[in-house]
Specification:
This protein is an alpha/beta fold. The protein contains 11 helices and 21 strands.
Length: 487
């Protein structure tokens, strides 16, 4: 007669509890479309970065966000304002009596309306009026969908950066790149899904630093990987010199065995398995990342096209060419920050708007134009969405100083989208006659985020994550897709 094993109450609860937890996790993953398919008797293990289907068919598969850090002046770049020319030197209150000295950041330096110091000319078949500071990017306006009615809430860099990156003006929430990789996974098994590049000229990180590419409450595997601007791009990527490849493989095999034993009784812990997967990715990156980041195999004509070797723009040129190489290898989301901390170290032109924007446009125009041309020539632009945008715009008035600048303006900014299903050669929305406020077809940054997700095939109201009893999403409780910029 077969004996029946007896369990203590503790053993019974332990074994049954783990089983119920696994069932709960399976149900949750199935609800989100993340449950791995079974093969035979066993299901494949969970990989948080495995490619996942979008909510619906879309052209864009990946994003390159050219983040114009510091707040570019829309009225000096893409938003031509004849009305500002006509009212040059007049008080803004004659145009808008609601203007307050606290609208910007320096309330004691408020000047009169100031026309752009740059000449605007029509470019492309669409006849888009473009500032003279963009001779190369201006060649690509027929690929771009412009939004001239963007607005946000904060006139301060840090909260405005958080808002543009995470949807709300405070730190601690997941950024756009984290939401995108959480929703779609990665097409590469050897490189990070989300990569960030910042200013390499010693001008510092954007305000808020790494919180701008944080995964927030999402699992840490979805956080952006920052490529260091100086020295080895990724910290601790190279193994110690004394360790051979064979020795490292033996070490990793032992770690894998220990991790597997640890995981065996914690199958319901998705965060633990994600952490183990991240260690495995780090090993694969030791071989894949150096190759992807090395430009020595690029032909000379390509280096010249981007501006590599030109002291004015070499740093951005290298980042843009690396971005193209990364998207070729399956990286899902890339951010390139132009400019560093604030003021003259970024597009934050409080003093000498002409000198400031001439400098930073000179650093970015040729490389970013080359990136668009290169992506198109390789057939990558069709499914790569390129975004050009900063955290806010700038006021149409002069900020008083030896050389006049422009103060922060949360009431209006410009952005453009190219490739990836964006409707090229179009303009949506408008600012008022002098560029002070978004006027027609206003676009909140939540709407911009909803549109980016839509072009990637994701419905922004369905891309959610439950945290502290609430279902969060990138667009918070707002957001509408700007369908007029979708092809």
């Amino acid at each position: 007669m077969m004996s029946i094993p007896l369990y203590s109450r503790r053993q019974m609860l332990s074994q049954a509890g783990c089983g119920f937890g696994a069932l709960g996790l399976a149900g949750l993953l199935d609800d989100q479309g993340l449950l791995s398919s079974a093969s035979g008797a066993e299901a494949s293990s969970i990989n948080p970065l495995a490619p996942r289907p979008a909510h619906f068919s879309a052209k864009a598969k990946r994003v390159i966000w050219l983040f114009i850090n510091g707040g570019p002046s829309h009225v000096d770049t893409w938003d031509y304002k004849p009305g500002l020319v006509e009212r040059d030197g007049k008080s803004i209150r004659e145009f808008d009596p609601t203007f307050k000295n606290t609208t910007g950041f320096f309330k004691n330096a408020v000047g009169n309306l100031m026309k752009s110091p740059f000449e605007f000319t029509p470019r492309g078949e669409c006849g888009k009026m473009v500032s003279s500071i963009f001779p190369t990017l201006g060649e690509h306006v027929d690929k771009m969908a412009f939004i001239h009615s963007g607005f946000t809430e904060s006139n301060n860099h840090s909260p405005a950066l958080f808002a543009m990156n995470t949807g709300v003006p405070r730190m601690g929430l997941p950024c756009v790149g984290s939401w995108v990789t959480y929703g779609l996974g990665s097409e590469s098994s050897d490189l990070p899904a989300f990569v960030v590049m910042t200013d390499p000229k010693g001008r510092g990180l954007p305000k808020g630093h790494a919180a701008n590419w944080s995964a927030g409450f999402l699992p840490g595997v979805f956080q952006g990987t920052h490529l260091r601007p100086k020295g080895p791009p990724i910290e601790n990527l190279s193994r110690p010199q004394h360790m051979t490849d064979a020795a490292q493989k033996r070490q990793l095999k032992l770690l894998d065995q220990l991790n597997s034993l640890h995981l065996e009784s914690r199958r319901a812990d998705g965060e633990l398995e994600a952490r183990i997967r991240s260690y495995e990715l780090a090993y694969r990156m030791q071989f894949a990342a150096p190759e992807a980041l090395d430009l020595k195999d690029e032909p000379q004509h390509m280096l010249d096209q981007y501006g590599i070797g030109d002291a004015k723009c070499d740093h951005v040129a290298r980042q843009c060419l690396v971005a193209r190489r990364l998207v070729e290898r399956g990286v899902r989301f890339i951010q390139i920050y132009s400019g560093g901390m604030e003021n003259q170290r970024s597009w934050d032109g409080h003093a000498d708007i002409k000198g400031n924007h001439t400098q930073f446009a000179g650093e970015t125009d040729r490389p970013m134009g080359a990136l668009l041309a290169d992506l198109e020539q390789r057939g990558l632009l069709e499914d790569t969405l390129v975004v050009w945008c900063g955290e806010f715009g700038r006021l149409p008035i002069a900020q008083k100083g030896a050389k006049p600048g422009r103060d922060h303006n949360p009431h209006c900014f410009s952005a453009w989208l190219a490739g990836g299903g964006a409707k090229g050669g179009t303009t949506y929305g408008s600012s008022d006659e002098v560029g002070f406020k978004a006027a027609d077809n206003r676009v909140h940054l939540n709407d911009l985020h909803a549109t980016i997700l839509h072009l990637l095939g994701m419905e922004h109201t369905r891309l959610t994550y439950k945290y502290n009893g609430r279902h969060f999403r990138l667009t918070d409780v707002a957001g509408d897709v700007v369908k007029d910029v979708v092809a």
